[in-house]
Each structure stands twice: as C-alpha cells, then as structure tokens.
Amino acid sequence: MSVLADADCAVCRRKFDSNEKAFTSSGKIYHEQCFICCQCLQPFPDGIFFEHEGRKYCDYDFRILFAPVCNSCGEFISGRVIKALSRNWHPDCFKCEICQTSLADSGFVKSGNRALCRKCNAEEKQKKLNLVICKECNGDIEGNDFITINGQRAHIFHFDCYVCGKPLTSHGFEKNGKTYCLRCYDKMGVPICAACKRPITDEHIITALGKSWHSDHFACAKCEKPFYGRPHYEHSGLAYCEIHYNQLFGEICFFCNQAIKAQNVIRAFQKHWCEDHFKCGSCGNQLTLKSKFFELDLRPLCKKCYDRFPSKLRKHLKNRMGKSGD
C-alpha cells in the first residue's frame, strides 16, 4: 500500500487511492481506467495487448494498424511471415500456384507474377520452349545423352549400372526400374537397335541385314526415310529404297536411258531393258525373254517381222544370233 501511495499513474500522473485497483506493465503502474488501448480507448479483452513504440494496443487494433495480411487467405498474420512477390503470406498458405506444394521451406521460382516450385517451373519452361527436362535435376537435356525411366527422361550421368556399378556414360538402359550399361544390358538378351543403340522394348522389331531395328529407324541409307514394310534392297551391308537403289546401283535401260527397277530388268544383246521397253524394233510388239526374237541394229526383232525379210538377210541374222534366239 505504501508503494501505491507514493506512485503516480504512468498515463494521467495522478496518485492512487489506498484501496484502488492498479495494473502494472513493463515496470509501470496504471489506474484501471488508464490501462486501455490507445486507439479505441477500451479495456484490453482478456487482458491481451500488444505494445508498439511505447504505446499499447488491443489485439484487434494492433492487427488493423500493424499486422500484415496474408495474400492467400486474407487473414492477419501473427508469428512467422513469408514475404514474396511484394506480398505477405502465412507459411501454410504460401504454395506453388500449379501443384499446391508448400514453398515455405523449399524455396520457389518467380514465373511472371506467380510463385512456382522448381519442378512446375521446369515443366512450364519445357512447354513454352519445347525442351526436354531432366526429372532428377530439372535441367535441360540436350542431345541423346538421356535415359527414360517410367516414362520420364533424365540425364544419363545421374545413374549407375545396377549390375557392374559403373556410372552410365553415352548409352544406358532401363528395365523394371533398374538402370544398366550397354554391356550388361546386352547380356540380358534384349535386342538393341542397330541405328540408335537403344533397346527395342516393343513388339515392332525389324530384323534385316543380320541386325535388329526399331521400325522408325530401319530406313534408306540415302534418303533416310523409314521403310515401314515397303521393300528394301541391300548393297554392301546397307539398305536402300527402290528409287535410290536403282539410281545408285541399278542398270540403265538401253531404250529410255532411265534406271530400271530391280525386278523388271531384261538382259539381251549385252544390254539392259525395262520390261515395258523390250519391244520389236520393227512393229513395236511387246517381247519377253520367252519370245523368239533376233537382233537387228542392236534392237530386238520379233519372229513375225523376221519372216518377212529376204531369205539371204534372214540367214545372215540367224547365223549371227546362232541359236540364242530359238
């Protein structure tokens, strides 16, 4: 009582009555009617107040005047505040705008006016620039040094061979979620495409030239167009489409001076002919190798036209041909 008798109220500077109720805070004494919010001038509900620059505020006025508002839920933030994109957030409300993963402790990437996790930002970047993104590091994948695991691509250097333990280099393969180097994978009996050096895991296996191929990769060595079941022609270990095989290696027709399709070539008089162009040089009738014909001026002559010639000329032609036209 002697303490109150000598003390002054920190607000009004007046003395206290001997039986008067008093409040103390931060080493200061207040009358009951003086211990109020400096903004609304009302007592503190449940005795809860906040102090700012030496002045006391009730919970409501302190929030209105000084507490940040969460950009997501619109509620006041007390405690930890996430400041990002020039806005304030509750830690639980600061999430990736696409997948809703919490970003409070994992960091984020600014994309336009959005906060995204690194994975979603990489996927967005991939869509815009048509890039292939590594599922392990979210970095860009350039060239063919990647491996596909569960439908997703990743840099090949992130993995080791399941069998020998060596890091994968230029070629690596996946089977049942495990990664293998080319040597170990080859021992498992899985066919490897001769073009891309990758395993053929589907049912569309092309076997040609003593090798296995993806259907998309078995192509003409000249124009590089896949055959897709069309005929191919082999030469020196390479496969060619009909057009380029004939252009590069086929015979030239004596009549039209064009390359002859491989299955339509006729050889006669030490020359080559298209099947349609092997005709009698006199009457123009179509001939075949089974027809009876003679040579006249390096062209075939049918038997009917031959019989019209004088006997002396017929004898000369027959002697020159021998029995080859019979």
TL;DR?
The protein has 326 residues and is α+β, with helices and mostly antiparallel strands. It has 7 helices and 22 strands. The N and C termini lie far apart (149 Å).
Low-confidence stretches: none
Q: Order of strands side by side in the largest beta sheet? A: 1-2
Order of helices and strands: HEEEEHEEEEHEEEEEEHEEEEHEEEEHH
Shape: rod-shaped
Share of residues in helices: 10-25%
Mean pLDDT comes to 79
Determine the strand fraction and express it as a percent band: 15-25%
Largest sheet: 2 strands, antiparallel
Our Rg estimate from Cα atoms comes to 47 Å
Number of contiguous helices: 7
Distance between the termini: 149 Å
The count of strands amounts to 22
Content-based structural category: alpha+beta
Describe this structure in words.
- By secondary structure, this protein is of the alpha+beta class.
- 17% of the residues lie in helices and 24% in strands.
- The strands form eleven sheets. The chain has a two-stranded antiparallel sheet. Strands 3-4 form a two-stranded antiparallel ribbon.
- A hairpin with a 2-residue loop joins strand 17 and strand 18.
- The radius of gyration is 47 Å and the shape is rod-shaped.
- The model has no long low-confidence stretch (mean pLDDT 79).
